[in-house]
Specification:
The chain is mainly alpha-helical and about 170 residues long. About 65% of the residues lie in helices and about 5% in strands. A two-stranded antiparallel sheet has the order 1-2.
Length: about 170
């Protein structure tokens, strides 16, 4: 489980680095993905911030409002802290049941911290794909955050063979 929390931070660090290079205009531009990079980040971070709250929806709304007022550098800094806090909370609460994953106005699903981490890592993959599309539409280099690349990196292995294969057949 600790590995997944570190993976989430690693994947987001790769995007933080690419996003830090964007101009303010690029950061706020809305293209074919229907959201700007800023809007995507505000949503992603608000989801993480509200994850372990007892009343997720009000916490999500407040985080969304606060983040929307921030500039790029402030958002990137907040995002890093949010990821670190999230990974720590998962580690500390691994088997605790929360029962706060809303599925409707008056309903929720009981989940453990590990299950919640998997939900957020998976959902984060979706939004990192959107960020990748937004960066490419801005003419920027793509960012890969594949879990396999993370495993190679933490094991000090080169992944050139896989990377070449992946680029040839995508």
């Amino acid at each position: 489980m600790n590995n997944l929390g570190h993976y989430l931070i690693w994947a987001h660090d790769r995007y933080r680095k690419a996003i830090a290079e964007l101009t303010t205009e690029e950061f706020n531009r809305i293209d074919k993905v229907d959201r700007s990079v800023k809007e995507l980040l505000v949503h992603m971070i608000s989801m993480t911030e509200s994850c372990y709250a007892e009343n997720q929806i009000p916490v999500y709304i407040k985080a969304n409002e606060d983040l929307s007022k921030m500039n790029k550098d402030e958002i990137l800094e907040f995002w890093k802290k949010s990821d670190d806090d999230f990974a720590k909370a998962v580690e500390e609460n691994a088997t605790k049941e929360f029962g706060i994953m809303p599925v409707g106005p008056d309903d929720s699903v009981k989940v453990t911290a590990l299950q919640k981490l998997i939900v957020y890592v998976d959902h984060g993959s979706f939004h990192r794909g959107q960020l990748l599309s937004a960066l490419k539409q801005l003419g920027k280099e793509g960012v890969s955050s594949d879990y396999f690349y993370y495993l190679c990196e933490i094991n000090n292995k080169k992944f050139e063979l896989y990377a070449n294969f992946h680029h040839q057949y995508r």
